[in-house]
Design goal:
Elements: H1 34-45, E1 57-61, E2 64-67, H2 82-92, E3 99-101, H3 105-110, H4 119-129, E4 144-151, E5 156-163, E6 168-172, H5 181-199, E7 217-220, H6 233-242, H7 254-267, H8 274-281
Parallel strand pairs: 3-4, 6-7
Antiparallel strand pairs: 1-2, 4-5, 5-6
Helix pairs in contact: 1-8, 2-6
């Protein structure tokens, strides 16, 4: 499923660790430790008789979770699932942060607006599905809002970033297209309208800072790094959320980033199932013929329009009060 290669590093550098914000440089796959390589093998290629369970959860954070089969979208040249993007957004969300990371469901719900008569249900759906109560009365402390958006017709991800201090918005799109930009801009403005509607009650007091999000100047960033494959767009969205404003994409190597994102997800300190995953990965591997090349179904993990039915994932910890 993953494809380590053992040349010198061609990975790109960045200035922050996605988990802790510390200085960090991406290693090439050949620089990964044996333990990390074993963990990748265990996640992507587990085939011990009686132990292969594709629905086994490999990561959970709050109400968001990721099953083993859903990690398969991180195999080479495979489109990224919304569940991978959402677990990364959940990891990045911090109650003390000035940056907010919304799940992809927000953009999906934004498309559903049908008129003033349905605003209440529209807003309630966004608040409940995207867990927006965690931001109650915190808008004044927010400086940026990251909203991953999915163009379902072309299976392409792009990122809307609301810069509250500058009262601007930018669209980071790794593969802009003059024939599709208008459609993607419309979707971005739908998300901005939903944002305004959801948070309008947060801007009613005399001490509140008032924002009118629909009046923000929205631009498709010309400085955004580009890639000619839609399948890589989800990787770009993840890295933009983690390293916004930093030059992370120099000499972009897809396999390196996919391997590292898989490791970041499995080993993240906020992952409630990190220990059950790492324990079997530490076993000694005896098969010299077990190659690290994915040959399975590339469509095993796919992008659904929405995931409102059924649980996103059970919570493995007590919730703190969000009042």
């Amino acid at each position: 499923m993953f494809a380590p290669h053992h040349q010198a590093s061609t990975g790109s550098s960045c200035t922050q660790d996605p988990c802790k914000g510390n200085p960090h440089t991406f290693p090439a796959s050949g620089e990964l430790s044996k333990k990390d390589l074993s963990l990748l093998t265990d996640i992507f290629m587990k085939n011990t008789p009686g132990e292969d369970n594709p629905s086994e959860e490999v990561a959970t954070c709050g109400d968001f979770g990721l099953a083993r089969v859903e990690m398969h979208c991180l195999s080479p040249s495979t489109p990224i699932s919304f569940k991978v993007i959402n677990i990364v957004a959940a990891y990045l969300s911090d109650s003390d942060s000035e940056s907010w990371y919304l799940p992809s469901f927000f953009g999906d719900i934004a498309r559903l607006y049908k008129g003033p008569s349905e605003v209440r249900g529209w807003v309630a759906s966004a608040i409940n599905t995207c867990q927006l109560k965690r931001f109650h009365r915190r808008l004044q402390q927010c400086s940026k809002i990251f909203i991953p958006l999915h163009d379902h017709m072309s299976d392409h991800w792009y990122l809307l970033v609301m810069n509250l201090d500058e009262r601007t918005a930018e669209i980071l799109d790794s593969k802009p297209d003059v024939h599709l930009d208008d459609r993607r801009m419309v979707h971005a403005r739908e998300a901005i309208l939903l944002l305004q509607t959801v948070f309008s009650n947060e801007m009613t007091r005399s001490t509140d800072v008032y924002f009118h999000f629909p009046s923000f100047n929205v631009n498709i960033s010309e400085l955004n790094p580009r890639h000619n494959r839609n399948a890589e767009s989800g990787i770009y969205v993840i890295r933009h959320m983690q390293y916004h404003g930093h030059n992370w994409s120099t000499q972009f190597d897809s396999i390196d980033h996919r391997n590292l994102i898989a490791l970041e997800i499995a080993k993240h300190p906020r992952n409630h199932v990190i220990h059950p995953i790492e324990a079997p990965a530490s076993r000694t591997r005896t098969s010299a013929n077990r190659t690290a090349t994915y040959t399975g179904n590339a469509n095993a993990a796919f992008n659904a329009d929405m995931a409102l039915n059924g649980r996103k994932c059970r919570s493995h910890r007590l919730r703190r009060s969000r009042a």
